[in-house]
TrEMBL record:
Subcellular localization(s) per the UniProt record: Cell membrane
Organismal lineage: Bacteria, Bacillati, Actinomycetota, Actinomycetes, Micromonosporales
Molecular functions (GO terms): heme binding; iron ion binding; quinol-cytochrome-c reductase activity
Topology versus the membrane: Multi-pass membrane protein
PROSITE patterns: CYTC, TAT
Signal sequence region: none
Keyword Cell membrane included in the entry's annotation: yes
Catalytic activity: a quinol + 2 Fe(III)-[cytochrome c](out) = a quinone + 2 Fe(II)-[cytochrome c](out) + 2 H(+)(out)
Quaternary context: The cytochrome bc1 complex is composed of a cytochrome b (QcrB), the Rieske iron-sulfur protein (QcrA) and a diheme cytochrome c (QcrC) subunit.
Binding, heme c 2: C174, C177, H178
Keywords of this entry: Cell membrane, Electron transport, Heme, Iron, Membrane, Metal-binding, Repeat, Respiratory chain, Translocase, Transmembrane, Transmembrane helix, Transport
UniProt name for this protein: Cytochrome bc1 complex cytochrome c subunit
Length: 282
């Protein structure tokens, strides 16, 4: 302890003068550490998220640039600039991939003429090359699923069991909506499953990848690419190319037994009425 003497008072004043700069230095040191931490956090964010600053300067390929021009002329009203979507008009296309564009635009479902329960298939407004360009633009803009190149069916010479395997997969995953004959059918709320009889291999593969309308998405973790090819092989060879066993006047590929029964019932009814008419005349 210091005594209450002139010497003690001088000692306390000296200590206060020494402590004041020490507190100032502590405050400056804390501020410097905070600024250093903020600078470090900013540097880490910049290093690991460069796309946030480079998005506006994204370099598109020549094909994507052509697709962007088509998009800006025909799609920007509903899907917005840079395909970010417009509320109440059209969803964002970021991440849908070229497969979705090739299905929707290639089948004429897009552009839509009006908002309704389901986009109907129409003659496409763009040719295949333009559809590819628009798909490439959306692909480079946000990524997403793509239709693989090459043959989308399975050769029966290489895999003789592919047709049977595709039929089993089709019956498990597709018949509840598209029917056993692939003719499609009505769903709830004014929607429907379209017929597969005129669908191309690319359209079927893209539909399984993207799940348009009420159709579920069959990602590669649910149906492998080989299984998708087996389903397409079954649809092409059994439902599209194979002759309908029901003959010329069929009932949706239900087979000759069902159609024979229908013909028998109709025929018997006609014969009964004919017999009654003849009896009445005689």
């Amino acid at each position: 302890m210091t005594s209450d003497t002139p010497a003690g008072r001088r000692f306390r004043v000296f200590n206060r003068r020494r402590s004041a700069p020490s507190r100032a230095r502590r405050r400056l040191g804390a501020a410097a550490r905070m600024l250093a931490a903020l600078a470090l956090a900013g540097g880490v964010y910049t290093a690991f998220a460069p796309g946030a600053f480079a998005e506006d300067t994204r370099q598109l390929s020549a094909s994507a640039q052509e697709g962007k021009a088509l998009f800006d002329n025909s799609c920007i009203t509903c899907h917005g600039r840079n395909a970010e979507g417009v509320e109440g008009r059209g969803p964002s296309l970021i991440g849908v991939g070229s497969a979705s564009v090739e299905f929707q635009v290639g089948t004429g479902r897009m552009p839509m003429t009006r908002q309704e329960a389901q986009a109907e298939q129409k003659p496409p407004q763009f040719d295949k090359a333009q559809v590819k360009q628009m798909g490439q633009y959306i692909q480079e803009l946000g990524g997403g699923p793509q239709i693989p190149s090459g043959d989308l069916t399975t050769s029966l010479e290489q895999d003789p069991k592919a047709l049977a395997a595709g039929g089993e997969l089709f019956r498990i995953n597709c018949t509840s909506c598209h029917g056993f004959g692939g003719a499609g059918g009505a769903l709830s709320s004014g929607k429907y499953a379209p017929s597969l009889h005129g669908a191309t291999t690319e359209q079927i593969y893209a539909a399984m990848l993207t799940g348009p309308q009420n159709m579920p998405v069959f990602g590669d973790n649910e149906l492998t690419p080989d299984q998708k090819r087996e389903i397409i092989t079954y649809v092409k060879m059994q439902l599209q190319d194979d002759k309908d066993p029901g003959g010329l006047f069929n009932l949706g590929r239900y087979g000759p037994v069902t159609e024979g029964l229908a013909i028998f019932v109709v025929g018997i009814t006609i014969l009964v009425f004919a017999a009654l008419w003849i009896a009445g005349k005689s």
